[in-house]
Amino acid sequence: MRSSNPVFSRRGFSRDNSGYAGFNAQQPQAGGPAVGTNPYAEGATNPYATNPYAQDTQLGAPQQARGDVMTIDDVVSRTAMTLGTVVVTAALSWFLLPVDEANITKSYGIAIGAALVAFVLAMVQSFKRKPSPALILAYAAFEGVFLGVISAAVSTYISPGVVAQAVLGTMAVFAGVLIAYKMRWIRVTRRFYGFVMAAAIGFILLMAVNALFSLFDGAGDGLGFRSGGLGILFGVIGIILGACFLALDFKQVEDGLTYGAPREESWLAAFGLTLTLVWIYLEMLRVLSILQGDD
Question: I want to staple 94 with a disulfide (CB 3.0 to 4.6 A). Which of 19, 108, 152, 193 is the partner?
């Protein structure tokens, strides 16, 4: 199953004979399923799949024999490091880049520059064959600078408590999706994946058009999709999409653990989860800001 997250989409996954975004297909051997059968390829014509991590293509030795496989502890520790970097740099930028009237233009300029650098680093990592911890942590640092300034501005000019509410909301979404996924209330299937991807593409295109129109709008509202009632509606849609991304990311991590992905893949898991949580936080912050601003 390909994740909606681009950092997961290039890691040993490709379409099988049925067009399903799963592991490379292989016909079953006589007497039973092939080793590495993908139990999650629901709805696929061919339910058998090879394990893309069973053999190290460079060393020619099974990953399990070398004891170099990804574990849940690896995923948790790398994710904690990546998110911790985001939080630390966000806190530093909050205090070191003030958003008062005298410094707000400078702080905003630095924040936008940091966001652009973070975007470039994310794209570079997304197309690399192997994860780069330094690149991932650098992305987290620049993303934190952007989030810190934006959060400080919202807290200063809209409501001091809205940032804490957005953080708690993001944590609640994460916990809720994790519980729902573990309880199998959410079933990540081919249909689920296709629906989420179609909705995400439509959402991003619509927001891009809105941003384009905002460049020619003196009030900066564009088509009004990011403010007022429509802003709340599309913000909630964005949060729901983020929750769907989390489910896809959890599925990707689960498959990596099941198939014995190399330990370095845990950095990609951390990177992907961080991207999704940042998405959810920004959408949550936007919705709460609109609600607080209307009070």
Answer: 152
What confidence category does residue 19 fall into, taking pLDDT thresholds of 50, 70 and 90?
very low
% of the chain with per-residue pLDDT over 70: 73
Contact 7, 126 (CB under 8 A): yes
Give the whole-angstrom CA distance, residue 4 versus residue 21.
11
Residue 47 DSSP class: -
Q: Which two tokens stand for residue 46?
A: 């061919």
Torsion of CA 160, 80, 72, 39, to 10 degrees: 50
Cβ neighbors of 239 (< 8 A, separation 6 or more) are 173, 280, 283, 284, 287
Q: Name the token pair of 198.
A: 């179609």
Q: What is the DSSP letter of 169?
A: H
Q: What are phi and psi for residue 22, nearest 5 degrees? A: -135, -155
Question: 26 in helix, strand or coil?
Answer: coil
Confidence at 79, pLDDT banded by 50, 70, 90: very high
Place of tokens 């408590």: 161
Where are the strands (E) in 120-220, listed by range? none
Judged against a pLDDT cut of 90, whether residue 62 lies above it is answered with: no
Q: Among 22, 17, 18, 49, which Cα is nearest to 248's?
A: 22
Region label for 5, one of left (φ > 0), alpha (ψ between -120 and 50) or beta (otherwise): beta
The CB density around residue 14, as the number of other CB atoms within 10 Å, is 13
CA dihedral for 125, 130, 135, 137, sign (positive or negative): positive
pLDDT for the residue numbered 130:
87
Query: For residue 59, is pLDDT > 50?
Result: no
SS3 of residue 254 by DSSP: helix
Q: CA 202, 204, 206, 212 torsion: positive or negative? A: negative
Residue 124, pLDDT > 90, answer yes
User: What DSSP state is assigned to residue 98?
Assistant: -
